[in-house]
Specification:
single chain, 239 residues, alpha/beta, six-stranded parallel sheet, 7 helices, 41% helix, 15% strand, binds 3-methylbut-3-enyl trihydrogen diphosphate, binds magnesium ion
């Protein structure tokens, strides 16, 4: 696979459309989630080939608990299966598993397999896969504010030291760079509470393809689109 210019260092994906993919095939929504989880393994490998160092995947939002209990249960079970299946790949490729979100509220079994895999890969240095689980951009900011207030209360930070850099240190994964590119599949034109702080200047790419069908070629198209963007960060165009 050839490398393309305009490098994406951190790619974040809102993996949407599993349910519609299944419904279009007269299958249960759960079958769509299974196909979606299989696709994660493929996209992880493709991202590695494209030399993307950080990959962040929106797997379960703080709002997704509103879904029927059976669907939520199936998603949590798939998470465990996914971790079991992808661990050998992560070890082989030297990738570290990371997670963002209110992890304490995940079901015990899912939480334990997640924490186990994070521990097993903690010293890997070849890339970072971050799963957003029970994640909400607003809860992340609220949680950061609470931690910051605690730090001010016990004298670790003076109120006048608070700026964007200090605040950022209290987010779930302060060591992650902001995403360069955020992809949303299935054609929806919204952020759905993903990485609100971090994507302030990310480039957005919407694909009409449903997540289970979003393959290596679709990823390549997104990266090519990114490489022709001009990121200005509020400044003026570089000639
Ligand atoms: C994305 O697919 C997976 C999760 C949100 C967990 P959806 O389940 O949202 O699929 P659609 O949007 O209903 O098609
Ligand atoms: C966003 O998709 C969350 C994930 C991909 C995990 P949703 O399907 O939950 O978003 P809405 O409800 O269409 O905004
Ligand atoms: Mg959806």
């Amino acid at each position: 696979m050839s490398k393309i210019s305009g490098k994406v260092n951190h790619l974040a994906i809102i993996m949407d459309g599993n349910g519609r993919w299944a419904e279009a095939r007269n299958l249960e929504r759960t079958a769509g989630h299974r196909a979606g989880a299989d696709n994660v393994l493929k996209i992880m490998q493709a991202a590695k080939e494209f030399d993307i160092k950080y990959l962040t995947l929106y797997a379960f939002s703080t709002e997704n608990w509103k879904r029927p209990a059976a669907e939520v249960g199936a998603l949590m079970k798939l998470l465990q299966e996914f971790i079991f299946k992808q661990l050998p790949f992560m070890q082989k490729e030297n990738v570290r598993l990371n997670a963002i979100g209110r992890l304490n509220d995940l079901p015990e079994a899912a939480r334990l397999s997640l924490l186990g895999a994070m521990k097993a890969t903690a010293n890997n240095t070849g890339g970072v896969l971050t799963l957003a689980l029970n994640y909400g951009g607003r809860s992340e900011i609220v949680d950061a504010a609470k931690k910051l207030i605690a730090a001010v209360k016990d004298g670790r930070i003076a109120p006048e030291e608070i700026d964007e850099t200090t605040f950022q240190q209290f987010l779930y994964a302060p060591e992650l760079p902001d995403p360069d590119l955020v992809i949303r599949t299935s054609g929806e034109l919204r952020i759905s509470n993903f990485l609100l702080w971090e994507m302030a200047y990310s480039e957005l790419y919407i694909s009409n393809v449903m997540w289970p069908d979003f393959d290596c070629n679709e990823l390549k198209k997104a990266l090519e689109a990114y490489s022709s963007r001009n990121r200005r960060f509020g400044g003026i165009e570089k000639k």
